[in-house]
């Protein structure tokens, strides 16, 4: 969630505004509370109450409090799978990876900068991000690995796994840089291409050496 979409702490009374969906209200309420009292000091009950929904509604959308920190990435993983399927016909396996990552990134504007990352010092989310980040990295890597196993058989199973892990890590690094650059950050897709392309080129070279 971008800061432009989040109200200032304490401004949870939304007079005159159209009612927003429960997930969005939960995200906004969590952001307000994390800013006011920190991540560790905020409970799911408090987030639900601030959003004006039942505790059970929270769990309809988020299995844990920590899942609120990864809304954009968790939503991007299935879109990446779809994008890989859509672009594979006209690109090599590795080329499709770079293109599909850019397609997914184009859906994430500067207004949707992950607040839990950009405001981690103020919100106290750094430890939770570290604790839950590996699962997200693995989720991205697994999508890429399935694609590369199908489209780049020369890599073999171990190569597909290694290539996927390294590309996923590069993509995460590019996304982190994008977040850190503030209002002058530019498109996310450009950052991902810049981070991923050297890794993709390296694996292309590896395939060429095998051939």
Automatic annotation (TrEMBL):
<feature type="region of interest" description="Disordered">
    <location>
        <begin position="1"/>
        <end position="22"/>
    </location>
</feature>
<dbReference type="GO" id="GO:0003700">
    <property type="term" value="F:DNA-binding transcription factor activity"/>
</dbReference>
<dbReference type="Pfam" id="PF00440">
    <property type="entry name" value="TetR_N"/>
</dbReference>
<keyword id="KW-0805">Transcription regulation</keyword>
<dbReference type="InterPro" id="IPR041347">
    <property type="entry name" value="MftR_C"/>
</dbReference>
<dbReference type="InterPro" id="IPR023772">
    <property type="entry name" value="DNA-bd_HTH_TetR-type_CS"/>
</dbReference>
<feature type="DNA-binding region" description="H-T-H motif">
    <location>
        <begin position="43"/>
        <end position="62"/>
    </location>
</feature>
<keyword id="KW-0804">Transcription</keyword>
<dbReference type="InterPro" id="IPR050109">
    <property type="entry name" value="HTH-type_TetR-like_transc_reg"/>
</dbReference>
<dbReference type="InterPro" id="IPR001647">
    <property type="entry name" value="HTH_TetR"/>
</dbReference>
<feature type="domain" description="HTH tetR-type">
    <location>
        <begin position="20"/>
        <end position="80"/>
    </location>
</feature>
<keyword id="KW-0238">DNA-binding</keyword>
<protein>
    <submittedName>
        <fullName>TetR family transcriptional regulator</fullName>
    </submittedName>
</protein>
<dbReference type="Pfam" id="PF17754">
    <property type="entry name" value="TetR_C_14"/>
</dbReference>
<dbReference type="InterPro" id="IPR009057">
    <property type="entry name" value="Homeodomain-like_sf"/>
</dbReference>
<dbReference type="GO" id="GO:0000976">
    <property type="term" value="F:transcription cis-regulatory region binding"/>
</dbReference>
